[in-house]
Amino acid sequence: MARTGRAVIAHGQDFEIREYPVPDPAPNTVLLRQEMAGICGTDLHNWQNGIQEEMLLGHENVGIVEAIGKGVETDYVGQPIQEGDRVVLAPGVKGYGAYGFRTEPDNAPHFGGGFSDYIYLNFPNTCLLKTEVSPEVGVVTEPFTIGVHAAMRAKIQIGDTVVVQGSGAIGLVTLICAKISGAGKLIMIGGPEGRLELARKMGADVIIDIDQVPSVGDRTELVMSHTTHGEGADIVFECAGFLPATPEGLGYVKYDGTFVEVGHFVDMGSIDLNLNQLLMRKNLRLEAVWASQYEHFVRGLPILEKNEFPFAEMVSHVLPLSRVKEGFEALSGNYQLDDKTTIKIVVQSDAD
User: Fold this and answer.
1) Looking at residue 1, what is its pLDDT?
2) Residue stretches of the chain with pLDDT short of 70
3) Separation of alpha carbons 4 and 23, rounded Å
């Protein structure tokens, strides 16, 4: 009897587990036994809006090579790979789509996302990278590359004062990337406290808890008090993914400063802002990052492999496939699950 594996199918705000035959990899493809897949803010926002078509989610992935198709001998950077190796992968493949956003799940090939027992890498030129990091570190590779991309676009200079809005996974990795890029002072704005405690471990110099300082005006005054001459931050990263955070963050930027939009990979609507006051009069440089490219994976993975920061502590919850919806509901609610603050929730396969 052919092997089967389970995959989570998302539609609307519902999830269903289905079984599919596990494919033998065709030439130039790789079959992974999935270890962990993170629930991303993009997944969350799409789910909040209602996923329009049946979809195989899970684009933050780490897995073990289960089988290799003919013609595959090395990873993206030329390291030899074989069955049993641990790999991470870039979800997006130019010209073909992205793992973790595959529709029509009942049509072969199956296993196009990470919320499953297996993930089948059948897009040509998929970027997969062999690594020896733990699964808890490997699973944060994709979000870490967003921080890499954001920091590179920001053009951080040694000694810059940097504000990061949002203390979720993207905010935390952006904080790290700003630190290693030369930021002199790091100000983290977010909550709840469990996430902020990890931000302290990651290197935040100033913490502003939005629960303790609920007023935008008070937060702005506090941020300014930690900048040179009270003039504002050199660089502000919006990583919260909430519409009101953008005009608030623009208010933190000094004259000639830079604002980097990182938190809106899903269309969550529009905002009103004063272009003259928040952009023009500040002579501001506005940047926005869209996902990450293969370059950011190649640059970012060696940083993760050094393990100089508590990356694994970002994984606050490891859930079986059957509890995926609980993870989404917690991230959409009070950031609590099993009496613990959520940071990065991952889904784990228990396939043999």
Assistant:
1) 40
2) 1, 351-352
3) 9
Query: Do the beta carbons of residue 264 and residue 280 sit within 8 Å?
Result: no
Instruction: Yes or no: say if 285 and 257 are a contact pair by the CB < 8 Å rule.
Output: yes
* Residue 352: predicted pLDDT: 53
Determine if the pTM surpasses 0.85.
yes
Cβ atoms of 61 and 88 closer than 8 Å: yes
Does residue 298 fall inside a structural domain? no
**DSSP3 helix / strand / coil % (the chain, rounded to 5):** 30, 30, 40
Q: Are 225 and 183 members of one domain? A: yes
Q: How many helices (H) and strands (E) does the chain have?
A: 10, 21
pLDDT at 215: 98
- Whether residue 157 sits in one domain with residue 59: no
Which domain covers residue 233, as residue numbers? 148-288
First to last CA, the chain: 16
Q: Is residue 140 part of a domain?
A: no
The two structure tokens encoding residue 272: 């009103």
Task: Tell me what pLDDT residue 37 has.
Answer: 98
In three-state secondary structure terms, 317 is strand
The answer to whether 163 and 187 have CB atoms below 8 angstroms apart is yes
Query: Using one digit for the tens of pLDDT, what is the confidence trace for 57-70?
Result: 999 999 999 999 99
The residue out of 288, 319, 338 marking a domain boundary is 288
Between helix 169-180 and helix 141-154 the angle, nearest 10°, is 50
Domains in the chain: how many in total?
Answer: 2
Asked if residue 25 belongs to a domain, the reply is yes
The distance between the two most distant Cα atoms of the chain, rounded to a whole number of Å, is 72
CATH number for the domain spanning 213: value is 3.40.50.720
Distances (CA, A) of 78 to 74, 205, 270, 298, 346: 5, 39, 44, 12, 29
